[in-house]
Amino acid sequence: MINLAILSAKGGTGKTTLAIALAHQYALANPKREILLVDADNQGNVAISLNLHSENTLGAFLYRATDTIDTVRYRPEIPFYVLESGRLHLYEAEKRIYEYPQPTHYFRDHLLQEFDPASLVIWDLPPTLSIINDNVLAIADYIVIPTHTDYLSLTGITNLLAYLEHFRARHQVRCRLLGIAITLHREHVNQNRQNRESLQQAFDGLLFEHAIPLSTAIATTAQNHLTPLEAADPRAREAYQGLVREIHQRMMNCQE
Ligand SMILES: Nc1ncnc2c1ncn2[C@@H]1O[C@H](COP(=O)(O)OP(=O)(O)OP(=O)(O)O)[C@@H](O)[C@H]1O
Ligand SMILES: [Mg+2]
Question: The CATH number of the domain where 242 resides is what?
Answer without folding.
Answer: 3.40.50.300
